[in-house]
Amino acid sequence: MQFADPHDDPNAYANELGISSEAMSLYLASDVIDLHLDSFIWTRIFGYNLHKKHNLGLFGRAFYSHCDFPRALEAGLTGATWIITTNPFLPSRVRTPLFVKNLARLKRELANASSHYRHVRTAAEYRAARAEGLHGAFIGIQGGNALSHHRDDLDHLKDGDVLRVTLVHLSNSNLGVTSSPASRLGGRDGLTSLGRDYVRRLNEKKIFVDLAHISRRGFFDAVEVHDKSQPLIVTHTGIAGVYEHWRNITDEQMRAVADTGGTIGVMFQASFLGKRGVTASHIIDHIEHIIETVGEDHASIGTDYDGAIVPPPDIPTPREMPKLVELMLRRGWSSERIGKILGGNVLRAVELLRG
Question: H or E element: which one contains 33?
Answer without folding.
Answer: strand 33-37
